[in-house]
Amino acid sequence: MTDRELNGVAGVLCACLCACFSTQAAESSYQDWQFTNRFNPAVPTEATNTSGVATAAVVVGFAGAGWQLDLPGFGEQTGLWDLGLQNQSDLGNDTRGRVVLGIPNPVAAGGNSYTDLGLRVVQFFVGSGFYDGDLTFSIPGAAFLGRTTIEALPGTGSWVEDAFRWRLEPSPQQVSLSITGSVNGTFLDRIIVETVSVPAPLKLMITSVAKSNQNLAISWVGGLPPYQIYVASNLLGGGLWQPVGLPVPGTNAEIPLAGPAGFVRVRGSN
Which of 13, 30, 170, 232 could form a disulfide with 48 if both were Cys (CB 3.0 to 4.6 A apart)? Predict the structure, then answer.
């Protein structure tokens, strides 16, 4: 928690800290890889990211056919990557294909910042030991939040869209996500990644203090609510900080002026 103390004499404030601070809102990004060509690394077909261009590097595994325009007889999907599968004669090595995503993060790392990451993958699904959709992921510093199947077409052999969610805390400078294909083969059609990054809160700073009738009006920025105001008669060894009033949800409050002199501070919940 960060404090700022102000000294008042004879009920009149003798010092005031004033400053202007900018506040940072959450930043988002969107990347949609539809793989309309065989370029590798692939850039998103559609994207919104103020920090740069994301990339998807595709590594084709054992028996993978690589980029394909379509899969005749299995729907209208176009722009596909056959990642291959695990070579059962070489179990000592991981021969599965993978896609490695690098996504610039609009919010710089540090402090109490965090990034929520959403991933949507469209892949071909058969099951029964072949194209079973069993992907694995590597995201340094991420906590897994859940998976949802968005759409699954009926019948044997269909295109399925799954959604996955993670939280990275603190926010990284770049989100690194590796998608490894199934042991039994993976055919990818589309990858969508969305991020929402929340910056670290500003340090708590008092911006204005003024006498208002018999009260002291205080305003501040930064920190996290709720806030608590404290007063002390002195800052020597015997001085004790005492809370004044109830916790404050906003960033301003008034407290009664009392005594010939005193010190005031504000604390946030962080």
Answer: 30
Compute the CA torsion angle 72, 73, 77, 79 (nearest 10 deg): -20
Q: Do 27-198 and 6-22+202-267 have the same topology in CATH?
A: no
Q: How would DSSP label each residue in 28-94?
A: EEEEEE---S--SSBPPSEEE-TT---EEEEE--BT--EEEEE-TTS-S-EEEEEEEB--TT-TTS-
Whole-model pTM: value is: 0.70
Domain 27-198 architecture? Sandwich (2.60)
pLDDT digits 0-9 by tens, 240-268: 888 999 999 999 999 998 776 778 889 88
Give me the count of residues in the chain. 270
Residue 127: DSSP 8-state: B
How does pLDDT run across 92-112, given as a tens digit for each residue?
999 999 999 999 998 766 667
* CATH code given to domain 6-22+202-267: 2.60.40
CB atoms closer than 10 angstroms to residue 236: 7
Distance in Å from the first CA to the final CA of the chain: 6
Spatial separation of the C-alpha atoms in residues 62 and 77, rounded to whole Å: 23
Which sequence spans correspond to the domains of the chain?
A: 6-22+202-267, 27-198
Q: Are 67 and 38 in contact (CB under 8 A)?
A: yes
Cα dihedral 244/246/251/255 (nearest 10): -30
Helix (H) or strand (E) holding 12: strand 12-13
